[in-house]
Amino acid sequence: LGFVLAFLGWIGIIISTAMPQWKMASYAGDNIVTAQALYEGLWMSCAMQSTGQIQCKVYDSLLKLESSLQATRALMVAAILLGLVAVFVAVTGMKCMKCMEDDQVKKMRMAVFGGVIFIIAGLAALVATSWYGNRVARAFYDPFTPVNTRFEFGSALFIGWAAASLAMLGGAFLCCSCPRRETSYPPTRGYPKNAPSTGKDYV
């Protein structure tokens, strides 16, 4: 269960990173706009016309972007790469895999290590999406921001928050479930030790 949740969270992080709907234009003013929807993401900005046509433009230069947007990009890409590493490490520690069958302790530790990497990847994605969302909220409530240029949270942010939560939750399950299986202590129940004290010596 933990691996499935973490894997779904990692897929969600990839989808959120690729989506252009990180923030969408807020039509709070009285002006009539020709575009039905304006979106901005980490890699491009898009406009969907009232006719249904979507036009997207990739950002021209990396150096022209804001430093906060570059940092958000870096955190999301790092989360994706960490998630990829976590997938391979956690799969190696799964009981259904034949790899490392001879040493079950190391196999369990690999699963736990994969869970830790999943948690780190989820934290990176959570920091990136929360930081970006905080910037959008501050610009929206800034009285100096023109009404026509205000943006609201896009669907990619909500997907990113949910994906980061799934990745961390799945990683936590991987970290918690495997040690319990290791420390179940089946031979220490004390049945052999209680055998001499059954009273047979007094018969």
From TrEMBL:
GO CC entries: bicellular tight junction; plasma membrane
Task: Please classify the protein's predominant subcellular localization into one broad category.
Answer: other
What transmembrane ranges does the database entry give? 71-91, 111-133, 153-176
Question: What organism does the UniProt record list as the source?
Answer: Aptenodytes forsteri (Emperor penguin)
Under what name is this protein listed? Claudin
Signal peptide span: 1-20
Primary role: Claudins function as major constituents of the tight junction complexes that regulate the permeability of epithelia.
Q: Name a GO molecular-function annotation.
A: structural molecule activity
Family, as annotated: Belongs to the claudin family.
Location in the cell reads:
Cell junction, Tight junction; Cell membrane
Query: What are the entry keywords?
Result: Cell junction, Cell membrane, Membrane, Signal, Tight junction, Transmembrane, Transmembrane helix
Give the bilayer topology: Multi-pass membrane protein
